Predict the structure.
Amino acid sequence: MKNLTFLIIFLSVSLSTFSQKIEGLAPTPQMGWNSWNKFGTDINEQMVKEMADALIATGLKDAGYNHILLDDGWMAMERDAQGNLVPHPEKFPNGIKVVADYVHSKGLKFGLYNCAGSKTCAGYPGSRGHEYQDALKYVEWGVDYLKYDWCSTGKLNAEEAYITMRDAIYKAGRPILLSICEWGENKPWDWAQPIGHSWRITGDIYNCFECEHDHGGYFSWGAMNILNMRDQEMLRKVAGPDHWNDMDMLEVGNGGLTPNEEKTHFALWAILNSPLLLGNDLRNMSKETLDILTNKEIIAVNQDALGIQGFKYKTEGTVEIWVKPMVNNEWAICFFNRSQDPVDFIFNWEGQTIKDNVFDKEITFDKGNVYKIKDLYLHKEIGNTKKALKRKLEKNQSLVLKIYK
């Protein structure tokens, strides 16, 4: 009996060594480029190489974007006779490893997409029943990042399905960031922290500021719909280094938002510590788009080492005030006009106390606590908290400040 008990304990310990998430891959929210928003399944080897080149040539890599991610549609419609995934012969005639090697040669990381179900969302082979086999193939190809979707899953249990892929990655032996793309259907914020490095909280984003797009069977959502769809105060309690709430990829540069809306979209994603994944054509960007995406001071808000997700402090009139505590008792503050009309906004610092009860952070503005104010769009100091802040905000326009000593 003692021998049997020992054997059970030994097997349990042995198996548990493969039941871990590889830590340290996303100490701050991941940054990079993903093919889906702009290109869907219309992807190929040359395009991916050009995106890697563009990431460097435009200064995006220097700004912190370091992943090139291939979404759905990179594989052939059938596995081979041994059950292995096969790169699409026309899109990737030289295979995936060649592409990954090219991306790595540029000092970047490379990622692929698959799905927990039998088919991906675009109808290609999913990983169900092939998780360990697929993980070994990703290691062979040099994959650094896996976006793992949730189509054609039938009656699968979401938590168990993602645990299976996590364990497969761990056993395969390569540090691969696992991005859970389960759309918030099964409340991943309750269970995903020990499994993935980020998890989607809603369905797909759409190229608009505030709208619902009916695809004939499912909806995608504008940026503000995604912002308002979940309880952000609840979500921030479970987020932090290596486990981030993912509000989906950015639509900046895709033409569906005004310049003010693009700035606001980018700033709120930064303040809420969402992964910053570009979804536009990097080879063909306006200066305005590039300026938004390479704003290193707003990126620094997202990448702040404290790793605390921001929250809505209050609403004054039509202006929402979103805040984020950062290192050295600095704070980022976003004033966002939700009105369809311009507003002349005045914010009196005197007597304001911003409290973050979840992470025990607080900042008080009074005569004994005067802070400098930096406009992160203008990249310059604009005064201090002795005087009331006065600004005209257009429709959907935001003002993003850093408050510091």
